[in-house]
Amino acid sequence: MRRLARDGAAVAFSYAASADRANALVAEIEAAGGHAVAIKADQAAAHEVRHLVAQAHAALGQLDILVSSAGVFVTGPVDDAATDVAALDRQFDVNVKGVATAVRAAVPLLRDGGRIISIGTTGAVHIPFAGAADYVASKAAVAAYTRGWSRDLGPRNITVNLIQPGAINTDMNPDDGPFAETLKNMTSLGRYGQPEEIAAAVAFLAGSDASYITGATLNVDGGQSA
After folding, report:
1. Of all helices (H) and strands (E), which one includes residue 163?
2. 50 and 31 within one domain
3. Helix (H) or strand (E) run with residue 91 in it
4. Which residue, among 55, 13, 67, has the nearest Cα to 35 in the 3D structure?
5. Is 160 within 8 Å of 151 (Cβ atoms)?
6. Is 135 an annotated catalytic residue?
């Protein structure tokens, strides 16, 4: 959000729980001269996702770019009886259905020449460890959707692309967490990426320099998938 706002976009974003953090981000963006709106939504609830898109469109006046970045990650080997089946449903509800619902809601509102960008994982093609099958399968579904949607929306000059991050220093996967050393050693660069590096990739695909790129997957993973 910060990067797109800095580049001149008015932004609306969703949050699941922390209104204080969301409001602080809005205040930060607006203090820098931008315009931002925070909207609470559960990405697993289709009606909330549809309402989110409608609210964003109403607040901003138009819709040029849709970025789907929500994600749920739960580990559990398929041969472990203790693996929570509800976690499978939650991951697909957020990681697949949430993205598809947002796109379906946004397409009628999105201007011709707009951008749809989803955030997946490089694990969809290079699984780093056991127990991640449900998560990476959900993200692989988004990769397939990306290719299909690019065909559907090409006549409107709407580009649809996917960014597949590797190990990125986030709350969900911190660079001092239990998987950190394993994941660092899988990269060519020997480190975690930073959120700002993903934001730069989003900004590129959202901009005019990427006007002939659609149906594509951009790995931003420090060489993990090499």
Report:
1. strand 159-165
2. no
3. helix 85-92
4. 13
5. no
6. yes
Cα–Cα distance measured from residue 163 to residue 34, given in angstroms and rounded to the nearest whole number:
25
Q: State whether 35 and 50 are in the same domain.
A: no
pTM above threshold 0.90: yes
Predicted pLDDT at 179: 83
Q: Which of the residues 135, 145, 192, 212 is marked catalytic?
A: 135
Q: For the chain, which residues score pLDDT lower than 70?
A: none
Q: Is the distance from CB of 201 to CB of 175 less than 8 angstroms?
A: no
Q: What is the pLDDT of residue 17?
A: 87
Residue 146 lies in a domain: yes
Burial class (CB in 10 A: 0-12, 13-18, 19+), 108: exposed
Give me the CATH number covering residue 121: 3.40.50.720
Range of the domain at 6: 1-40
Say how many domains are in the chain: 2
Residues 70 and 95 in one domain: yes
Tokens of 55: 């609210």
C-alpha atoms less than 13 angstroms from C-alpha of 191 in its C-beta half-sphere? 5
Is residue 68 a part of any domain in this protein?
yes
Residue 196 token pair: 């700002």
pLDDT of residue 125: 85
Alpha helices in 114-193 (DSSP H): 133-153, 180-186
